[in-house]
Structures are given as C-alpha cells and as structure tokens.
C-alpha cells in the first residue's frame, strides 16, 4: 500500500439522528450514536443499545494480504451487505501544526504515511472542524485499505457519539461486497471521486501541472495511483495541507 494521504475528506454531519437503525447506514455521510453521556445499556446482547454500531470493534472477517501492483491491501473474507460497518479509521489525533510537521518529516525521510485529513463541515455551514488522524505509527487494519479513484466499495462516515469530544471516521460498505474482494475507498471522499475528462494515466501529467498551478506554482511530488479503474487519475489524491 502506498501510504500517501493528503486529500481531505469533506464530511457533512447530520442535524438530527436518522430514523432508521444505524445498521442501515447506506452511504450516509454522518452517523449519530449513543455515547458516554447516554444512560442506555452498552452491549450487543439482548437489551443492548443498537445505536452503538461502531463501538463494538471489528465484527467482520478481514485479511491483510499482498495485492499485485499495490503492496498490502485488505480483502473481505465474508459477504458484506451494503451499509455494514467494517472498521474505524484509528490513529493519533493531531492538531494541524503537528500534522504539517509530521508530513514534512515523512517527506524528508522519503517515507510513506497514513495520515488522513477529514474536514468536517459544521451544521452552520460557515465553518469546519479539521481532523488529522495519523495511522502511520499507531493504527488498525484501516491503514492498509487502498485508494480507488472511482470511490471504491467503502464509504467514509463521520461518527459522533453523545458525550465524546471529537468525532471519529468509520468505514462502511457502500455496496454489497463479495468474499475475496479487495476493500477500497476514495481518499478524497466519494463525492469527489468521479471519472475525469481525459482520465487515466495518460492525462496525469497535465492534471498534475494544473494542480501545481492552482497551488501557486509550488512543486509537489505526486505518487502514481495503481487502482486500475477506468476512472483512475493516474496519481493518488493529494492536497497542500
């Protein structure tokens, strides 16, 4: 897996809890759960609160395994229905200055990383909360999930639990997933994952030059993308953070 994540997920929280069970997430971009401030029963047995879907750990069988052309990746070992919770994206929560320092250190060392930046749009729609989650040194299986330019088969969902200070990012199945299928998601969010005009590796250089111009002409090393989908941009999503 190429650990280079600089694109920002843009996640819009819900203003109120969904009417349906959290088990039927079905590609929502935010999920409200019970948490430490709730008096409900925490557990998965009889009488346990159903509004704690992401708080029970990984409940599906997954395998970290080599993927041709990509290095490491994650495959499902059982059928995953659309809306199924797969795993949290866990790691170290950093402030923005520390995140930028980490990125500079990773680049100076020529090392990859698994630092995910999620920009959470607040209900007022006039401001946003930025989450910097670095899974490079401390993380879970999610750090091995590869990028796909077409959006992949997983959806990044913002999870807010009552009584918790910071939201979390969780991965849910965006469609039915078959056993043995590689799990992927778009590092820049599914809303931005669309086939570009003149897509594919052939247009990567032009798009890279355009991105550089948009960033004020600053030079940036783009990492080639190996997702292999028809929507492939030719390089992994990247933004100046």
UniProtKB/TrEMBL annotation:
Identification of the protein by name: Histone-lysine N-methyltransferase SUVR3
Signal peptide feature range: none
SMART domains (alphabetical): SET
GO biological process entries: methylation
Region ranges (Disordered): 1-22
Stretches of the chain forming a coiled coil according to its record: none
Pfam families named in the record: SET
């Amino acid at each position: 897996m190429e650990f280079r994540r600089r694109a920002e997920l843009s996640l819009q929280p819900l203003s109120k809890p969904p009417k349906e069970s959290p088990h039927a997430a079905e590609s929502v971009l935010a999920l409200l759960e019970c948490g430490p401030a709730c008096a409900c029963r925490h557990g998965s047995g009889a009488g346990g609160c159903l509004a704690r879907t992401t708080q029970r750990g990984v409940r599906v069988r997954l395998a970290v395994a080599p993927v041709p052309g990509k290095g490491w990746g994650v495959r499902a070992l059982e059928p995953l229905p659309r809306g199924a919770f797969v795993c949290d994206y866990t790691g170290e929560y950093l402030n923005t200055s520390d995140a930028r320092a980490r990125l500079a250190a990773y680049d100076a060392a020529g090392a990859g990383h698994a630092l995910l930046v999620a920009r959470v749009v607040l209900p007022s729609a006039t401001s946003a909360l930025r989450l910097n989650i670095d899974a490079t040194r401390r993380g879970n299986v999610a750090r091995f999930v590869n990028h796909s330019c077409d959006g992949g088969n997983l959806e990044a969902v913002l999870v807010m639990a009552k009584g918790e200070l910071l939201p979390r990012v969780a991965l849910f199945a965006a469609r039915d997933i078959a056993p043995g299928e590689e799990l992927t998601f778009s590092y820049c969010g599914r809303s931005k994952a669309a086939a570009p005009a003149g897509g594919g590796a052939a247009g990567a250089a032009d798009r890279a030059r355009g991105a550089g111009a948009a960033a004020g002409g600053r030079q940036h090393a783009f990492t080639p993308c190996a997702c292999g989908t028809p929507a492939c941009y030719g390089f992994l999503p990247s933004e100046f953070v």
